[in-house]
Amino acid sequence: MKLIVVDDYEAVSRAGADVIASIIGRKPHSAIVIATGDTPMGIYEQLAARNARGDVDASRILAFQLDEYLGVPPGDRRSLYGWMERSFLAPLDIPDANVVRLPWDEGLAEEGCAAYVRAVEAVGGFDLAVLGLGPNGHLGFNEPPSGPGSRTRLVDLTNESIESNADYWGGPDVVPRRAVTAGMDLLLAARQILLVVSGEHKQDILRRTLDGPVTPDVPSSYLQQAGGVIVLADRAASPSVG
Ligand code: GLP
After folding, report:
1. Fold held by 2-234
2. 161 lines ligand 1 (CB under 6 A)
3. Average pLDDT of the chain?
C-alpha cells in the first residue's frame, strides 16, 4: 500500500486525475469502477477539463457503477447512477454502451447483481477501482461487518451511513435504508485501487484503515492486504502528518 499525502483537496484532485489519466493512457479500454460521494468530485472535474482540452480521452473506458440506493430509479437526481452520470460519464463523453450498472429495483436485485458480476468477470476484473472512504470504513456500501469475500449484493445501511448520506438527501429520515454494492471480492481484486480521502473528519477512520487491525468491522482495513493500492490523502485527513 502506498500512501501519498498532499497539501489539500485541490492537490488530491490533481494527483487523482493523474493516476486515472495514466491508467487510461496505457489502456484506453480500462475497466474502472467509479465512486460517487463528495471526495472524488474534484478529480472528475480535473479529468473533464483535461478531456475538454483533448489531453485525455476517456471515452473508451468501461465504467462500472460502485453502489446504488435500493428503490431509487436512475432518473432520480438522488440516485448514485444519476450522480455518476452528471459528474463522470457525461463530462467524459462515455457512451451508455460502455457503462455497467447495478440494479436499483428490489425485484431484480439478485439477477442484476449476478449480471454485474458476470460483466466484471468477462473483462477479467477491474483495472482500477476509484474509491472513497466511508466514515465507518465502508468501501462502496460494503458496510461493517464486511469481509474480503463479501459479494456484490443487497445491504442494509448502518445508522452511520444514513447519517453521513443525509446531506445528499436533505435529512436522515428520507435516506433509503437499503442499497446495492459491488462486493469486496471484486474491489480488492482490482489491479489498481485508488482510495481518496480528504478532511479532518476522515482522520480517525483513515488511521484505522492504514494501521488498525484487519477486521470485517473496518472493511477498508482489508486494503492493507490488497495489491496495487494507492491511498491519496490531504494533510487534514492524514493521521501521520495531521
Ligand atoms: C458513501 C458512498 C461511497 C463513498 C463514501 C464516501 O456513502 N457509499 O461510495 O465513497 O460514502 O463519501 P464521501 O466522499 O462523500 O465522504
Report:
1. Rossmann fold (3.40.50)
2. yes
3. 96
Residue 96: the pLDDT is 96
Distance CA(222)–CA(200), nearest Å, equals 22
Inform me whether the pLDDT recorded for 242 exceeds 80.
no
Give the per-residue SS3 of 211-233.
HCCCCCCCHHHHHHHCCCEEEEE
- Where are the chain's structural domains? 2-234
Q: Which active-site residues does the annotation give?
A: 67, 136, 138, 143
Nearest Cα neighbor of 205 from 219, 188, 226 is 219
Residues 33-53 pLDDT 10s: 999 999 999 999 999 999 999
Residue among 72, 154, 157, 146 at smallest CA distance from 112: 154
The secondary structure element, H or E, covering residue 14 is: helix 9-26
**Ligand 1 atom closest to 165 (CA):** 7
Contact 39, 197 (CB under 8 A): yes
The answer, yes or no, to whether any atom of ligand 1 lies below 6 A from the CB of 134, is yes
Q: Give 37 Cα–ligand 1 centroid separation in angstroms.
A: 4
Residue with the three cell numbers 435529512? 171
pLDDT digits (tens, 9 = 90+) for 125-164: 999 999 999 999 999 999 999 999 999 999 999 999 999 8
Cell of 1: 500500500
pLDDT at 77: 87
Band the pLDDT of 75: cuts 50, 70, 90. confident
